[in-house]
Structure formats: C-alpha cells, structure tokens
Design goal:
Layout (H helix, E strand, L loop, with lengths): L8 E2 L3 E5 L5 H7 L3 H6 L7 H13 L3 E8 L20 H13 L4 E10 L10 H6 L7 E8 L10 H15 L4 E7 L3 H10 L3 E6 L4 E7 L1
Parallel strand pairs: 5-6
Antiparallel strand pairs: 1-2, 2-3, 3-4, 4-5, 6-8, 7-8
C-alpha cells in the first residue's frame, strides 16, 4: 500500500522498510527456495512476475508489506533510523528512507505483511455499537504474515519484536482492531510464538488444511 511506502520503522534488533524495487533481486532469490515456497504456500515466479507483483502490492490498499532488516548485518551503514515520516513532513524525510534502503540491502532477512479486510461482527457481539460508529467499508481486521527468509536469523527470538512492531503500526496508523494468523498444526514454533508469547487465542481450525486460526483483538 502507498500509506507505508515512505515509512521506516525502528525496533531494538530489526528495522522495517517499505518493499521497493531495489529489494527484488534478493527477494526473488529467497522465493526460489523450495523450503520457503512450501512454508509460505507460494509458487515460484519469474523476475518479471515478481516486478509486477511488487507494483500491484504497492498500489493495493489492502496489502501492507515491510522488508525486515537485521541491525547486526548493517556494519555501521547507518547510525539510526529516524521516526517514520508522514505526509506532513518534508521531502527530506522521505529521501532519508530511500537512502536507508539503498544502504542496507545486505541486511534483508525477511518480510512481514498485513492483509486488510472488513471484520464480520455478529449482532450479539459487544462491539456492535463500535461498528455502527464506523464506515461500513472500514478495513478493521488484518491477517498477519511473517517470513524470516534468512536461515541465519531464524530461532533467534526475533518473532515477538517483529510481530509487536507490526501490530503497533497496524493498530495506531491503520485502525486495525483484530489481528489473526493462520498456522499449520505442525508448525510448533509459530504456535508457541503466537499463543504463548503473544497471547493469541484459537478461534477456528480447518481440519481439511490442518490449519489453526488464532486471533488477537485490540
């Protein structure tokens, strides 16, 4: 989406930058890995198809994507990340985000996404009155998807920080009120992350896919 196309978000161990054309060579290489393709339920794409998809996701207001950078791979490329620029800030802030991307391509370790949609609320739900105050077309829920593509940065307890960063951005800037994830029943690491560390609760199970749906409401 264009809303985050000039934003850089700073965490203790990782930094989020918007998914730009500069990232495509590394991203395309990731997505040729059979293990990642299976984990993300994806099909291999040609570079031309990756380029087209990046453009489509940039323009799709229901898809919010950040590339994840690891601070320990930056080798002093940048001293720190400034606060996320907004439309009210100067073009200088926007240029700093572009410069950061060019200087940190070697620090890419994965991506994180929000797929926005309208939340269906039953008439008996306590939140009905809140929904009535909102536009019927407001996108108030999002499926969260996290991929750590770099094997060197898996199993390093980065997941909690990454998910909380994305949820904070989604709740404060995109008005997301319900986050949910879909996780295969044999993905024990992700289930521990979302259920035990982040407090998501199970709301559905698709037996035909062997897949749990877990949610967290703000």
């Amino acid at each position: 989406m264009k809303a985050n196309y000039e934003l850089c978000l700073s965490g203790c161990n990782c930094i989020f930058v918007p998914y730009r054309p500069e990232h495509l060579p590394n991203y395309h290489e990731w997505m040729q890995d059979p293990e990642l393709l299976e984990a993300t339920a994806s099909e291999p794409l040609s570079m031309d198809e990756e380029i087209q998809m990046q453009r489509e996701w940039r323009d799709d207001e229901k898809k919010c994507t950040f590339i994840i950078l690891a601070r320990d791979l930056m080798d002093g490329a940048i001293s720190d990340i400034p606060p996320a620029p907004t439309e009210r800030e100067s073009s200088g802030a926007q240029k700093s985000c572009a410069n950061i991307i060019k200087e940190t391509l070697g620090a890419m370790i994965g991506d994180i996404n929000l797929f926005l949609s309208e939340e269906e609320i039953d008439d008996s739900d306590d939140e009905r009155s809140i929904r009535n105050e909102r536009s019927a077309s407001m996108l108030s829920q999002a499926e969260l998807d996290l991929m750590i593509a770099a094997a060197s940065h898996r199993h390093k307890n980065l997941g909690t920080e990454l998910v909380l960063m994305m949820m904070h951005y989604g709740a404060t800037e995109l008005n997301i009120r319900r986050f949910f994830v879909k996780i295969k029943d044999d993905n024990h690491a992700s289930l521990r992350l979302f259920k035990e560390k982040l407090g998501f609760v199970q709301c559905a199970y698709a037996e035909c896919f062997g897949e749990y749906e877990l949610e967290c409401k703000c």
